[in-house]
């Protein structure tokens, strides 16, 4: 045996969460699709921050004589009905899309996780109450709930985030409730409770880390749905308002010029597809890496 | 089974009530005075008061809800502010178009989804499987309104094979149905594939193969029957997505359905119309899922009835 640790005090127990995290990263690295998705997402985030400084035109720069031009060396994706450079506008719009996707899911996740944990951990009447409320929210399919919320709050970018957030709450609540139920039954939770830990401490220190994986998987996949829903609302004129270079709103412009200039609708849509695709691929990969049982 | 069916129906009632409460509150959660919004900026105090009286906005809230529920149960969803017509009539006259659109899209989704899913599962980990799943992932990631616009541009404007807009003739149906049904096809394909793969790995399939049952029989008779059970649930959920996805598809193709009605009503701040149509879609979705749930139990007798 080479050098041993005999003279040292007992090795400090490794933090199980960090070990767990390392394992996840290892498994994730093996998943090629997830790596591609993750790399693309990273690229999008960088683009959102530095892209606007690199593109040749600002989001609002109008050159009316150049309106509705097809793709060219000067305007890679052509120009829109106001002579604005579509490529530059798409790059400027990247941050809006990521902003909506990220924050709406964060809102939905926080509220959903709180409901889900309370429901699963305490059970009984409060569980029934919360889950029935979630059933009611789920009774509004697809974009309908978001439409309802926008009706109440009025059309704007931030209201879309709230609308899409509300729309994501039930899926988080359900998943977290299920995971909490199974974690709660584990023996070591009983042990911790016997040691006198409060409910709050058990939830924060023991339940939450254990339901973390399904939350992350769900969040990644939900960002994809959120981006699609938000773009849909903006397309309907109920989300981001012109002249914001939001992709759904740009598509709505494109619809008006589809007869003369198809490229106006083509490129913003492609941008949506690529971003949503990246989140879907990454989410699928995460799911395979984090929880092989969750494969659906 | 009978007990389960009854219990499941009874469970639906609180959800239905909750939905009516939420839809009812929609109008009251709008910041500002609903009567003022309905009457418009320039309306006189008297007009606003009249509207308030007509809509019963002066009554206490529970009373208003009770009246709303009572009227809704009798099929009265109020009067549209925009057109002055009965909301119930307007909703149902447009509802059939949306139902048709959703129904055809459903058929397309199920048909393509099942075939693609089965092929992918039978040839798993081959190029065919990989390609099918990549296409499915794209289908899942595409906004249906963008797909609709692109189909319109290629097949209606440039190639002139199909009409640009409208609903009714067989040619008019093709593009909207493809636009709306693609995402569903992708979801069903992925679901079918994973469900098939799970079933194929089970013991009884191995037994069937060992007995010398032909591979085709193993797949279509033994595996598919059980693999389809979870797919049924997805189909139920997908129906709701199609009903509301129609909001966007109808806007793209200028189809006069319920989805477009909802959007136009929201834009015009026509609250009774929004309330009525949202309520109708939600109730139909609940009923469809109830039916799916019950049929699911019939299909899968192994599930614990409690």
CATH superfamily of chain A: MetI-like
Oligomer: heterodimer
The number of strands of chain A is 0
How many alpha or pi helices of chain B?
12
Number of domains of chain A: 1
Number of beta-strand segments of chain B: 0
What is the C-alpha radius of gyration of chain A, as a whole number of Å?
23 Å
The SSE string of chain A, one letter per element, is HHHHHHHHHHH
CATH fold topology of the largest domain in chain B: MetI-like fold
Helix vs. strand class of chain A: mainly alpha
Largest interface: A-B, 45 and 49 residues
Describe the structure.
The complex is a heterodimer of chains A (296) and B (306). With 296 residues, chain A is mostly helical. Chain A has one domain (26-294): MetI-like fold (Orthogonal Bundle), CATH 1.10.3720. Chain A is built from eleven helices and no strands. In chain A, helix 3 (86-122) packs antiparallel against helix 4 and helix 3 packs parallel to helix 11 (263-290). The longest helix of chain A is centred in the middle third of the chain and has 37 residues, at 86-122. The model of chain A has no long low-confidence stretch (mean pLDDT 83). With 306 residues, chain B is mainly alpha-helical. Chain B folds into two domains: 32-73, no CATH class; 95-267, MetI-like fold (Orthogonal Bundle). Chain B contains twelve helices and no strands. Chain B is flat. In chain B, 42% of the residues are buried. At the A-B interface, helix 4, helix 5, helix 9, helix 10 and helix 11 of A face helix 1, helix 6, helix 7, helix 8 and helix 10 of B.
